[in-house]
Specification:
Two copies of one chain form a homodimer. In chain A, the strands form two sheets. In chain A, strands 1, 2, 3, 4, 5, 6, 7 and 9 form an eight-stranded mixed sheet that branches. In chain A, strands 8-15-10-14-11-12-13 form a seven-stranded mixed sheet, with helices on both faces. The model of chain A is unreliable at 172-178 (pLDDT under 50). By secondary structure, chain A is α+β, with helices and mostly antiparallel strands. Chain A is globular. Chain A folds into two domains: 6-262, L-amino peptidase D-ALA esterase/amidase, CATH 3.60.70.12; 270-390, ArgJ beta chain, C-terminal domain (Ubiquitin-like (UB roll)), CATH 3.10.20. Chain A has helices at 46-54, 75-93, 114-126, 133-139, 192-205, 240-262, 281-293, 295-302, 308-317, 345-355, 382-390, and strands at residues 6-11, 23-38, 59-69, 100-107, 148-156, 159-168, 181-186, 210-211, 221-226, 270-278, 328-331, 334-338, 341-342, 359-365, 371-378. Chain A contains eleven helices and 15 strands.
């Protein structure tokens, strides 16, 4: 599927291990309406600080991204590198510096090898005629074991448009973003304020609803560019086209977010956690995240142990309003506990069978209100420990 | 060392695997001034609910504790078991039910085998003439690999007294208590209000300053009994004796808390995390806990990887007020980063040498105020995953 007006390029700039593409470029032939959600951490990487300024006007035309080095905790020199990278890309493309977004992912606290980026930019820009979005998805991988991509189609005013996205991120994934980069492009024409609002909502229901290890990174960026090259009437709030666009966008982001969880570092299970009956939605999310972030719960998933008691324990300390005599829990359709106590002996065997699957749902009903939340998580495995004990070496 | 007026007993009641003592009793020949801190979780085990009522009058004379079953998420039947256990112990000892504290630790969600407890109580009470506090420390172990005990001496008005304590808890340890039981006994005479206040402060600076995996349990109980059998003038607030008692009590609790971290499930490292320069103490604790609970930081400790960037990332999302250009970090006396950036090339080798030790200190200065906090944590290892994936089987 083509997203009209966008071109792509990747090169090996030797920022990470030899033999791997590690620098990517996305370019729109015309300035695009754009919006971004950045990490809420107080420790922000240099490219986040620079890109946030550049996108303040609601437009972007190019995005350069590297893996292998996060350019975080690098002080003023790091900011200069991010600014200078944007300037050189802009120069080569004949656009303004502020039209360039800069993103990085990789190790924290090491200065960027700027000369290698500088040397690679001409080749990167030359390559725009030949590259594909999938190449960029490959180039942004760090501990990811597969590239993450999704494309969907929509229609507005009789005109077809495409929404395509890529993402990276395996460990360090937690609501409010994580070492997570995701770039969405569409050739639809979308009104600026509406784009920003619907994009933020879609991020909340997808990337902010997944958790691998509860950590949040310095570099998280989720960005959308809508260049209007499909030629559709501009999509805005309150219209059927606006609703349809939001649905499509949500589906693309949720697909990418689920791919990240499935590729969680060392993960062997994909678990959907649904909390219902909370006194409000915020409480439901609190309870769901406490479950999804509990090391004890996640190791039980790995051990295929139907240990619903650990899940109730996590709900208990989540901060959500809880009446322990009203709690119920199911693994898929097997009720394990009702009104706070064990549902009966055969539940154990049936629940264990559910947990032997690669994917299952944990449903917890708090039994006191109508608040709901759904999040997605993985298990905690030996492999997670191995990957993160050895990541830098 | 003897703590006058206290006697101890343990038996094998077959609540957990055969061959292990799993039921213990502590008895004071006279009613003791008592105080307890229980789990703040909304999901509270039955013995917590019962003991909380019993200790409301500020006295206790006996404590019965079992391992192997938490009696949590067991509903009304679980509460009846805890109440009936207290009643039977009281009957055998010739005291009131409300003078008996009941504690449990072990698996959640399984009904207690009450008949085995009932059958064991006569033998348990008979054994009081022969047992020692160390026996009870053994009987309360679950995934612990060693028994935790500390004893210290004090003096008030020319009279010597003792403070002795035991504890259990390895995984599921997190501030605001955890699957953590700790029982402190002293023969000092201590004024009730003062005992409660100084005990709560000591718990905050010890058990509430350790974290193994960030989880908190349904059963956490920390309890003190002061029976006055030393015959000292009653120790109260605002006196030199009161200050000395607090210091001794703090030392006993901190020793027990550190033993718990050292025995953290699968732990190979003991790490002290000191945060200074925060805008206030609460912010300092927030930052310290974010570091101590980060799976990425803890796996880096396991890998002996001087990855200070992950620590800054944790500080960044902790919620503490942070200016990333003022952050500094040291491993022991090796400064790794100053004003937010790497301190220089030889820091890497020297910092790695620090992390090769079994114990070290991580000092983070936020550089913006005078708030401080210290917490203690362990690393995250393969062994942790193994223990918790297999715990119930």
């Amino acid at each position: 599927m083509t997203v009209r007006g966008f071109s792509f390029s990747t090169v090996e700039a030797a920022i990470k291990k030899p033999g791997r593409k590690d620098l990517g470029l996305i370019f729109s032939t015309v300035p695009a309406t754009a919006s971004a959600v950045f990490t809420t951490s107080s420790v922000k990487a240099a490219p986040v600080l620079v890109s946030r300024e550049h996108i303040a006007n609601g437009t972007a035309q190019a995005l350069i991204v590297n893996s292998g080095n996060a350019n975080a905790c690098t002080g003023e020199p790091g900011i200069a590198v991010a600014q200078e990278t944007a300037r050189l890309v802009a120069l080569a493309l004949g656009i303004e510096s502020t039209a360039v977004q800069v993103c990085s992912t990789g190790v924290i606290g090491v200065q960027m090898p700027f000369e290698r980026i500088q040397a690679s930019i001409p080749k990167l820009v030359e390559g725009l005629s030949t590259g594909a979005l999938a190449d960029v998805a490959d180039a942004i991988m760090t501990t990811d074991t597969f590239a993450k991509m999704e494309t969907m189609r929509g229609e507005a005013g009789g005109v077809d448009y495409s929404v395509a996205g890529i993402a990276k991120g395996a460990g360090m994934i937690m609501p409010n973003m994580a070492t997570m980069l995701s770039f969405i492009i569409t050739d639809a024409a979308v009104e600026q304020n509406f784009l920003q609002q619907t994009f933020r909502r879609a991020v909340d229901a997808s990337f902010n609803a997944i958790t691998v290890d509860g950590d949040m990174s310095t570099n998280d960026t989720c960005l959308i560019m809508a260049n209007g090259m499909a030629g559709n009437p501009i999509i805005g709030e309150g219209s059927a086209e606006g609703y349809a666009f939001s649905v499509t966008l949500n589906a693309v982001l949720l697909s990418l977010a689920k791919q990240i969880v499935k590729d969680g570092e060392g993960a062997t299970k994909f678990v959907e956690i649904r909390v219902t009956g909370a006194s409000n939605d915020a409480d439901a999310k609190r309870a769901a995240l406490a479950i999804g972030n509990s090391s004890l719960v996640k190791t039980a998933f790995f051990g295929q142990d139907a240990n619903w008691g650990r899940i109730f324990a996590a709900v208990g300390y989540s901060g959500a309003e809880v009446d322990q005599t009203r709690l119920s829990l199911s693994f898929d359709d097997v009720c394990m506990a009702r009104n706070g106590i064990f549902a009966g002996d055969d539940a154990e065997a049936r629940g264990t069978a559910v947990l032997r699957q690669k994917e299952f749902t944990v449903s917890v009903d708090l039994g006191i209100g109508s608040g709901t939340a759904t999040i997605y998580t993985s298990d905690l495995t030996h492999e997670y420990v191995s990957i993160n004990a050895d990541y830098r070496s």
